[in-house]
Amino acid sequence: MKGPCVLAWLLSSLGLCRLAHPETQGATQCQRAEHPVISYKEIGPWLREFRAKNAILRFVTKDAVEWECDEATKKACYSKGKSKEECQNYIRVLLVGGDRLFTCGTNAFTPVCTNRSLSNLTEIHDQISGMARCPYSPQHNSTALLTAGGELYAATAMDFPGRDPAIYRSLGILPPLRTAQYNSKWLNEPNFVSSYDIGNFTYFFFRENAVEHDCGKTVFSRAARVCKNDIGGRFLLEDTWTTFMKARLNCSRPGEVPFYYNELQSTFFLPELDLIYGIFTTNVNSIAASAVCVFNLSAISQAFTGPFKYQENSRSAWLPYPNPNPNFQCGTVDQGVYVNLTERNLQDAQKFILMHEVVQPVTTVPSFMEDNSRFSHVAVDVVQGRDALVHIIYLATGRSSALLWGVVYHLLTLCFKF
Protein backbone atom coordinates (compact mmCIF):
# COMPACT_ATOMS: atom_id res chain seq x y z
CA MET A 1 0.00 0.00 0.00
CA LYS A 2 1.29 3.46 -0.84
CA GLY A 3 0.76 7.16 -0.28
CA PRO A 4 -0.38 8.91 2.89
CA CYS A 5 -0.87 5.59 4.71
CA VAL A 6 2.88 4.92 4.49
CA LEU A 7 3.65 8.44 5.62
CA ALA A 8 1.15 8.33 8.48
CA TRP A 9 2.78 5.17 9.77
CA LEU A 10 6.25 6.68 9.50
CA LEU A 11 5.22 9.91 11.17
CA SER A 12 3.45 8.23 14.05
CA SER A 13 6.33 5.81 14.54
CA LEU A 14 8.95 8.55 14.59
CA GLY A 15 7.00 11.25 16.36
CA LEU A 16 7.86 13.65 13.54
CA CYS A 17 4.77 15.78 14.15
CA ARG A 18 6.63 17.33 17.06
CA LEU A 19 9.45 18.51 14.80
CA ALA A 20 7.36 21.21 13.18
CA HIS A 21 4.74 21.94 15.83
CA PRO A 22 4.45 25.74 16.12
CA GLU A 23 3.82 25.61 19.85
CA THR A 24 7.19 23.97 20.47
CA GLN A 25 9.27 25.82 17.90
CA GLY A 26 7.69 29.25 17.85
CA ALA A 27 5.77 31.23 15.29
CA THR A 28 8.92 32.27 13.44
CA GLN A 29 9.47 28.68 12.32
CA CYS A 30 7.01 29.22 9.46
CA GLN A 31 9.11 32.07 8.10
CA ARG A 32 12.33 30.06 7.93
CA ALA A 33 14.04 30.07 4.54
CA GLU A 34 15.22 26.52 5.14
CA HIS A 35 12.96 23.86 6.55
CA PRO A 36 13.85 20.78 8.60
CA VAL A 37 15.09 17.87 6.53
CA ILE A 38 15.49 14.38 7.95
CA SER A 39 17.64 12.07 5.86
CA TYR A 40 16.95 8.42 5.29
CA LYS A 41 20.06 7.45 7.26
CA GLU A 42 18.97 9.50 10.29
CA ILE A 43 15.60 7.78 10.56
CA GLY A 44 16.94 4.40 9.47
CA PRO A 45 16.98 2.88 13.00
CA TRP A 46 13.21 3.47 13.31
CA LEU A 47 12.24 2.28 9.84
CA ARG A 48 10.87 -1.10 8.95
CA GLU A 49 10.96 -1.96 5.27
CA PHE A 50 8.17 -4.16 3.98
CA ARG A 51 6.95 -5.51 0.69
CA ALA A 52 3.24 -5.11 -0.03
CA LYS A 53 2.88 -8.49 -1.62
CA ASN A 54 1.61 -11.93 -0.60
CA ALA A 55 0.38 -10.61 2.76
CA ILE A 56 -1.94 -8.11 4.43
CA LEU A 57 -0.21 -6.23 7.23
CA ARG A 58 -1.79 -4.70 10.33
CA PHE A 59 0.66 -2.26 11.92
CA VAL A 60 -1.23 -1.70 15.17
CA THR A 61 -0.93 -5.32 16.25
CA LYS A 62 2.09 -6.02 13.99
CA ASP A 63 0.53 -9.14 12.54
CA ALA A 64 0.34 -10.31 8.94
CA VAL A 65 -2.07 -12.53 7.02
CA GLU A 66 -0.52 -14.44 4.15
CA TRP A 67 -2.26 -14.11 0.79
CA GLU A 68 -0.19 -15.81 -1.85
CA CYS A 69 -0.94 -17.02 -5.36
CA ASP A 70 -1.41 -20.72 -5.91
CA GLU A 71 1.16 -22.55 -8.01
CA ALA A 72 -1.15 -23.02 -11.00
CA THR A 73 -1.76 -19.27 -11.21
CA LYS A 74 1.97 -18.58 -10.98
CA LYS A 75 2.75 -21.08 -13.75
CA ALA A 76 0.13 -19.48 -15.98
CA CYS A 77 1.76 -16.13 -15.28
CA TYR A 78 5.22 -17.47 -16.19
CA SER A 79 3.83 -18.90 -19.43
CA LYS A 80 2.76 -15.38 -20.44
CA GLY A 81 6.34 -14.16 -20.23
CA LYS A 82 6.23 -12.55 -16.80
CA SER A 83 9.06 -12.78 -14.27
CA LYS A 84 9.05 -14.47 -10.87
CA GLU A 85 9.05 -11.04 -9.22
CA GLU A 86 5.98 -9.95 -11.19
CA CYS A 87 4.07 -13.20 -10.66
CA GLN A 88 3.26 -12.52 -7.02
CA ASN A 89 0.20 -11.11 -5.28
CA TYR A 90 0.69 -7.36 -4.82
CA ILE A 91 -1.96 -5.72 -2.65
CA ARG A 92 -3.31 -2.73 -4.58
CA VAL A 93 -6.73 -2.05 -3.01
CA LEU A 94 -7.33 -1.84 0.73
CA LEU A 95 -10.63 -0.25 1.77
CA VAL A 96 -12.67 -0.31 4.97
CA GLY A 97 -16.45 -0.52 4.71
CA GLY A 98 -18.23 -0.87 8.04
CA ASP A 99 -16.87 -3.96 9.79
CA ARG A 100 -15.42 -5.38 6.56
CA LEU A 101 -12.08 -4.96 4.78
CA PHE A 102 -12.29 -5.02 1.00
CA THR A 103 -8.92 -5.79 -0.53
CA CYS A 104 -7.65 -6.70 -3.98
CA GLY A 105 -4.34 -8.09 -5.21
CA THR A 106 -2.71 -8.57 -8.60
CA ASN A 107 -2.54 -12.33 -7.96
CA ALA A 108 0.08 -13.07 -10.64
CA PHE A 109 -1.72 -11.06 -13.33
CA THR A 110 -5.09 -12.66 -12.40
CA PRO A 111 -6.49 -9.99 -10.04
CA VAL A 112 -8.77 -11.10 -7.23
CA CYS A 113 -10.65 -9.33 -4.41
CA THR A 114 -11.86 -10.48 -1.02
CA ASN A 115 -14.15 -9.22 1.72
CA ARG A 116 -12.72 -9.94 5.14
CA SER A 117 -13.76 -9.31 8.73
CA LEU A 118 -11.97 -6.21 9.96
CA SER A 119 -11.49 -7.78 13.37
CA ASN A 120 -10.17 -11.05 11.95
CA LEU A 121 -8.40 -10.74 8.62
CA THR A 122 -8.22 -14.50 8.14
CA GLU A 123 -12.03 -14.66 7.99
CA ILE A 124 -12.97 -14.31 4.29
CA HIS A 125 -16.66 -13.75 3.58
CA ASP A 126 -16.48 -13.80 -0.20
CA GLN A 127 -14.02 -13.67 -3.07
CA ILE A 128 -14.68 -12.06 -6.45
CA SER A 129 -12.79 -11.26 -9.62
CA GLY A 130 -10.50 -8.26 -9.40
CA MET A 131 -10.84 -7.41 -13.09
CA ALA A 132 -11.70 -3.69 -13.48
CA ARG A 133 -11.14 -3.29 -9.74
CA CYS A 134 -7.41 -3.93 -9.48
CA PRO A 135 -4.58 -3.71 -12.03
CA TYR A 136 -3.12 -6.88 -13.50
CA SER A 137 0.41 -5.55 -13.28
CA PRO A 138 2.02 -4.28 -10.05
CA GLN A 139 3.61 -1.53 -12.16
CA HIS A 140 0.28 0.05 -13.14
CA ASN A 141 -0.97 2.95 -11.04
CA SER A 142 -4.52 2.73 -9.76
CA THR A 143 -6.90 4.20 -7.19
CA ALA A 144 -10.17 3.03 -5.64
CA LEU A 145 -12.77 4.03 -3.05
CA LEU A 146 -15.93 2.65 -1.45
CA THR A 147 -18.95 4.91 -0.96
CA ALA A 148 -21.31 4.77 1.99
CA GLY A 149 -23.82 3.09 -0.36
CA GLY A 150 -21.40 0.25 -1.06
CA GLU A 151 -20.38 1.22 -4.60
CA LEU A 152 -16.76 0.63 -5.56
CA TYR A 153 -15.17 3.23 -7.81
CA ALA A 154 -11.89 2.10 -9.32
CA ALA A 155 -9.56 3.75 -11.81
CA THR A 156 -7.26 1.11 -13.22
CA ALA A 157 -6.20 -0.89 -16.26
CA MET A 158 -8.98 -3.26 -17.29
CA ASP A 159 -6.89 -5.75 -19.26
CA PHE A 160 -3.71 -7.84 -19.09
CA PRO A 161 -1.49 -5.61 -21.32
CA GLY A 162 -2.79 -2.42 -19.65
CA ARG A 163 -4.08 -0.85 -22.86
CA ASP A 164 -7.65 -0.36 -21.65
CA PRO A 165 -7.63 2.08 -18.72
CA ALA A 166 -10.99 3.00 -17.24
CA ILE A 167 -12.80 4.65 -14.39
CA TYR A 168 -15.27 1.95 -13.43
CA ARG A 169 -18.10 1.59 -10.93
CA SER A 170 -19.21 -1.80 -9.62
CA LEU A 171 -20.83 -3.44 -6.60
CA GLY A 172 -23.69 -1.69 -4.79
CA ILE A 173 -27.17 -1.24 -6.28
CA LEU A 174 -26.33 1.15 -9.12
CA PRO A 175 -25.55 -0.20 -12.59
CA PRO A 176 -21.89 -0.78 -13.52
CA LEU A 177 -20.49 2.08 -15.61
CA ARG A 178 -17.14 2.89 -17.19
CA THR A 179 -15.40 5.53 -19.29
CA ALA A 180 -15.59 5.04 -23.06
CA GLN A 181 -13.31 2.28 -24.29
CA TYR A 182 -10.34 2.99 -26.57
CA ASN A 183 -11.18 6.69 -26.82
CA SER A 184 -8.14 8.88 -26.17
CA LYS A 185 -10.27 11.99 -25.68
CA TRP A 186 -11.72 10.39 -22.56
CA LEU A 187 -8.50 8.85 -21.18
CA ASN A 188 -5.12 8.86 -22.92
CA GLU A 189 -2.59 6.54 -21.28
CA PRO A 190 -3.45 7.80 -17.78
CA ASN A 191 -1.54 7.27 -14.56
CA PHE A 192 -4.18 7.35 -11.82
CA VAL A 193 -3.18 9.03 -8.57
CA SER A 194 -6.15 9.38 -6.17
CA SER A 195 -9.93 9.47 -5.78
CA TYR A 196 -12.36 11.11 -3.35
CA ASP A 197 -16.05 10.85 -2.50
CA ILE A 198 -17.21 14.48 -2.21
CA GLY A 199 -20.89 15.45 -2.11
CA ASN A 200 -22.78 14.35 -5.21
CA PHE A 201 -19.59 13.53 -7.08
CA THR A 202 -16.68 11.14 -7.16
CA TYR A 203 -13.45 12.94 -8.06
CA PHE A 204 -10.39 11.40 -9.69
CA PHE A 205 -6.92 12.87 -10.01
CA PHE A 206 -4.44 11.62 -12.59
CA ARG A 207 -1.89 12.55 -15.21
CA GLU A 208 -2.13 11.59 -18.88
CA ASN A 209 -0.82 12.34 -22.35
CA ALA A 210 -2.48 15.58 -23.43
CA VAL A 211 -4.49 15.14 -26.63
CA GLU A 212 -5.03 18.91 -26.88
CA HIS A 213 -1.29 19.64 -26.98
CA ASP A 214 -0.27 20.00 -30.64
CA CYS A 215 3.51 20.45 -30.25
CA GLY A 216 4.80 16.98 -29.50
CA LYS A 217 3.97 14.59 -26.71
CA THR A 218 3.48 16.05 -23.25
CA VAL A 219 1.77 15.08 -20.00
CA PHE A 220 -0.90 17.16 -18.25
CA SER A 221 -2.44 16.65 -14.83
CA ARG A 222 -6.20 16.32 -14.52
CA ALA A 223 -9.10 16.51 -12.10
CA ALA A 224 -12.12 14.55 -13.28
CA ARG A 225 -15.50 13.83 -11.79
CA VAL A 226 -18.68 11.81 -12.30
CA CYS A 227 -22.08 12.01 -10.66
CA LYS A 228 -22.56 9.24 -8.14
CA ASN A 229 -26.17 8.70 -9.29
CA ASP A 230 -25.24 8.45 -12.99
CA ILE A 231 -27.07 5.45 -14.50
CA GLY A 232 -25.55 5.51 -17.98
CA GLY A 233 -27.20 6.17 -21.31
CA ARG A 234 -29.89 4.51 -23.36
CA PHE A 235 -28.78 3.22 -26.78
CA LEU A 236 -26.07 5.91 -26.77
CA LEU A 237 -23.46 5.71 -23.96
CA GLU A 238 -25.08 2.55 -22.65
CA ASP A 239 -23.06 1.20 -19.69
CA THR A 240 -20.95 4.37 -19.97
CA TRP A 241 -20.74 7.53 -17.87
CA THR A 242 -22.96 10.37 -19.06
CA THR A 243 -21.51 12.87 -16.55
CA PHE A 244 -17.74 12.37 -16.99
CA MET A 245 -15.77 15.62 -17.26
CA LYS A 246 -12.11 16.48 -16.76
CA ALA A 247 -10.08 19.68 -16.39
CA ARG A 248 -6.37 20.45 -16.42
CA LEU A 249 -4.63 21.34 -13.16
CA ASN A 250 -1.97 24.06 -13.42
CA CYS A 251 1.07 24.05 -11.17
CA SER A 252 3.76 26.35 -12.49
CA ARG A 253 6.43 28.84 -11.52
CA PRO A 254 5.24 32.18 -12.94
CA GLY A 255 7.39 34.33 -15.21
CA GLU A 256 7.65 35.68 -18.72
CA VAL A 257 7.94 32.04 -19.75
CA PRO A 258 6.25 29.99 -17.00
CA PHE A 259 8.02 26.87 -15.76
CA TYR A 260 5.50 24.03 -15.59
CA TYR A 261 5.40 21.12 -13.19
CA ASN A 262 3.10 19.00 -15.31
CA GLU A 263 3.10 15.58 -13.70
CA LEU A 264 0.92 14.99 -10.64
CA GLN A 265 2.38 12.37 -8.30
CA SER A 266 0.32 12.47 -5.10
CA THR A 267 -2.56 14.35 -3.49
CA PHE A 268 -3.92 14.93 0.00
CA PHE A 269 -7.46 16.19 0.67
CA LEU A 270 -8.39 18.35 3.67
CA PRO A 271 -12.21 18.04 3.68
CA GLU A 272 -12.69 20.50 6.54
CA LEU A 273 -11.10 23.24 4.40
CA ASP A 274 -12.01 21.94 0.92
CA LEU A 275 -8.33 22.06 -0.04
CA ILE A 276 -6.44 19.55 -2.16
CA TYR A 277 -2.66 19.46 -1.91
CA GLY A 278 -0.78 18.05 -4.87
CA ILE A 279 2.84 17.15 -5.60
CA PHE A 280 3.82 17.95 -9.17
CA THR A 281 7.11 17.11 -10.86
CA THR A 282 8.84 17.62 -14.16
CA ASN A 283 9.04 14.81 -16.69
CA VAL A 284 11.48 12.01 -15.87
CA ASN A 285 13.48 12.83 -19.00
CA SER A 286 14.03 16.47 -17.99
CA ILE A 287 15.79 18.24 -15.12
CA ALA A 288 14.40 17.01 -11.80
CA ALA A 289 12.19 19.52 -10.00
CA SER A 290 9.15 19.32 -7.72
CA ALA A 291 6.50 21.68 -6.42
CA VAL A 292 3.53 21.64 -4.08
CA CYS A 293 0.39 23.39 -5.33
CA VAL A 294 -2.84 23.75 -3.36
CA PHE A 295 -6.27 23.83 -5.01
CA ASN A 296 -9.59 24.94 -3.64
CA LEU A 297 -12.43 22.54 -4.37
CA SER A 298 -14.60 25.49 -5.41
CA ALA A 299 -12.10 26.39 -8.16
CA ILE A 300 -12.26 22.85 -9.49
CA SER A 301 -16.08 22.93 -9.40
CA GLN A 302 -16.09 26.29 -11.16
CA ALA A 303 -14.01 24.90 -14.03
CA PHE A 304 -16.68 22.26 -14.65
CA THR A 305 -19.36 24.93 -15.19
CA GLY A 306 -17.42 26.81 -17.87
CA PRO A 307 -16.99 26.14 -21.59
CA PHE A 308 -15.56 22.93 -22.98
CA LYS A 309 -12.43 22.55 -25.07
CA TYR A 310 -13.60 20.84 -28.25
CA GLN A 311 -12.03 19.59 -31.48
CA GLU A 312 -14.43 19.08 -34.38
CA ASN A 313 -12.13 16.59 -36.13
CA SER A 314 -8.49 15.50 -36.11
CA ARG A 315 -7.48 18.37 -38.43
CA SER A 316 -9.31 21.05 -36.46
CA ALA A 317 -7.95 23.30 -33.73
CA TRP A 318 -9.08 22.89 -30.14
CA LEU A 319 -11.49 25.73 -29.41
CA PRO A 320 -13.75 26.75 -26.51
CA TYR A 321 -17.32 25.57 -26.88
CA PRO A 322 -20.14 26.96 -24.71
CA ASN A 323 -21.29 24.60 -22.01
CA PRO A 324 -24.79 23.47 -23.08
CA ASN A 325 -25.68 22.92 -19.42
CA PRO A 326 -23.67 25.47 -17.34
CA ASN A 327 -25.81 24.98 -14.25
CA PHE A 328 -25.42 21.21 -14.41
CA GLN A 329 -26.16 19.33 -11.23
CA CYS A 330 -26.56 15.65 -10.60
CA GLY A 331 -30.14 14.59 -11.17
CA THR A 332 -32.37 13.45 -8.31
CA VAL A 333 -34.94 10.70 -8.00
CA ASP A 334 -37.68 13.35 -7.73
CA GLN A 335 -36.65 14.77 -11.10
CA GLY A 336 -36.61 11.33 -12.64
CA VAL A 337 -33.51 9.26 -13.29
CA TYR A 338 -33.63 10.01 -17.02
CA VAL A 339 -33.93 13.79 -16.67
CA ASN A 340 -30.60 14.40 -18.43
CA LEU A 341 -30.86 11.54 -20.89
CA THR A 342 -32.43 13.14 -23.96
CA GLU A 343 -30.76 12.25 -27.25
CA ARG A 344 -29.14 15.71 -27.38
CA ASN A 345 -27.87 15.40 -23.82
CA LEU A 346 -26.26 12.05 -24.61
CA GLN A 347 -24.67 13.37 -27.79
CA ASP A 348 -23.21 16.26 -25.82
CA ALA A 349 -21.99 13.94 -23.05
CA GLN A 350 -20.23 11.77 -25.62
CA LYS A 351 -18.17 14.53 -27.22
CA PHE A 352 -17.80 17.24 -24.54
CA ILE A 353 -15.33 15.83 -22.03
CA LEU A 354 -12.47 18.29 -21.55
CA MET A 355 -13.08 21.67 -19.92
CA HIS A 356 -11.56 24.78 -21.49
CA GLU A 357 -10.68 26.55 -18.23
CA VAL A 358 -7.53 25.44 -16.42
CA VAL A 359 -7.84 25.02 -12.65
CA GLN A 360 -5.49 27.48 -10.94
CA PRO A 361 -4.01 26.96 -7.45
CA VAL A 362 -4.89 29.20 -4.51
CA THR A 363 -1.59 31.08 -4.85
CA THR A 364 0.12 32.17 -8.08
CA VAL A 365 3.45 30.82 -6.82
CA PRO A 366 3.60 27.16 -5.71
CA SER A 367 3.53 26.72 -1.94
CA PHE A 368 6.86 24.93 -2.09
CA MET A 369 9.43 24.31 -4.83
CA GLU A 370 12.66 22.34 -4.89
CA ASP A 371 15.04 21.63 -7.74
CA ASN A 372 17.00 18.40 -8.16
CA SER A 373 14.33 16.44 -6.27
CA ARG A 374 11.37 14.33 -7.24
CA PHE A 375 8.85 14.13 -4.41
CA SER A 376 6.51 11.17 -4.56
CA HIS A 377 4.16 11.39 -1.54
CA VAL A 378 2.49 14.10 0.49
CA ALA A 379 0.66 14.21 3.81
CA VAL A 380 -0.72 17.32 5.50
CA ASP A 381 -1.63 18.13 9.09
CA VAL A 382 -3.43 21.26 10.32
CA VAL A 383 -2.67 22.48 13.83
CA GLN A 384 -3.77 25.51 15.77
CA GLY A 385 -0.96 28.03 16.15
CA ARG A 386 -0.96 31.04 18.43
CA ASP A 387 -2.93 33.22 16.05
CA ALA A 388 -3.81 31.08 13.03
CA LEU A 389 -4.16 27.56 11.69
CA VAL A 390 -0.81 26.27 10.50
CA HIS A 391 -0.52 23.73 7.70
CA ILE A 392 2.32 21.27 8.13
CA ILE A 393 3.31 19.42 4.99
CA TYR A 394 5.28 16.18 4.99
CA LEU A 395 6.96 15.35 1.70
CA ALA A 396 8.78 12.18 0.79
CA THR A 397 10.98 11.09 -2.05
CA GLY A 398 11.72 7.48 -2.77
CA ARG A 399 10.74 4.50 -4.80
CA SER A 400 7.26 4.77 -6.20
CA SER A 401 7.45 1.35 -7.82
CA ALA A 402 4.62 -0.94 -6.85
CA LEU A 403 7.19 -3.65 -6.22
CA LEU A 404 8.38 -2.01 -3.00
CA TRP A 405 6.33 0.34 -0.86
CA GLY A 406 7.33 1.88 2.41
CA VAL A 407 10.92 2.89 1.71
CA VAL A 408 11.36 6.63 2.25
CA TYR A 409 14.71 8.14 1.41
CA HIS A 410 14.13 11.73 2.47
CA LEU A 411 11.52 13.39 4.65
CA LEU A 412 10.95 17.14 4.70
CA THR A 413 8.62 19.20 6.84
CA LEU A 414 7.51 22.76 6.32
CA CYS A 415 4.74 24.95 7.63
CA PHE A 416 3.03 28.12 6.52
CA LYS A 417 -0.14 30.09 7.17
CA PHE A 418 -3.05 30.52 4.78
Automatic annotation (TrEMBL):
Top-level division of the source organism's lineage: Eukaryota
Q: What is its main location?
A: secreted
Where does the signal sequence lie? Answer: 1-19
Q: Which GO terms describe its cellular component?
A: extracellular region; plasma membrane
Q: Where in the cell is it found?
A: Secreted
Return the InterPro entries for the record. Answer: Semap_dom, Semap_dom_sf, Semaphorin, WD40/YVTN_repeat-like_dom_sf
Q: Which GO terms describe its biological process?
A: axon guidance; neural crest cell migration; positive regulation of cell migration; semaphorin-plexin signaling pathway
PANTHER family the record matches: SEMAPHORIN, SEMAPHORIN-5A
Task: Please give the name of this protein.
Answer: Semaphorin-2A
